[in-house]
Amino acid sequence: MVAASHNSAVTFSLSPGQVGDAPEGRKLLKTLENCGWEGTKVIMDKAYEGDETRQLVFDLGMEPVVPPKSNRLSVWEYDREIYKKRNEVERLFRRLKGFRRIFSRFDKSDVIFKFFIHFALIVDTLISVNRP
């Protein structure tokens, strides 16, 4: 999932459980090409700190904000204050998992499951209007 803030998802996709996060994340990032997001800071989890993913973000005209893994030989600087905002997106995931049908994946059909993710995002947005 790519989220713009703690209460707005930009795009998401479903992937098989055995597929790694980084390749799927790159596919989602490629969908943002030519969407006017140039200059945007992209806050990413350490799972996405690979050279290929970071280079894609640079190629899209965005700035990756991700700490290097501890075993990385060539480290880089990143904006630690901006990176602290990553928890806002994690809160979005937590709220979505509050919908029992999503966290337990009752639906075997991807179409129905995607529908309920969309439904949960809409409900979360409507509730967030009243949230301080």
From TrEMBL:
GO biological process: DNA transposition
InterPro entries per the UniProt record, alphabetical: Transposase_11
Positions of the Transposase IS4-like domain: 8-117
MF terms in GO: DNA binding; transposase activity
Domain of life: Bacteria
Protein name listed in UniProt: Transposase
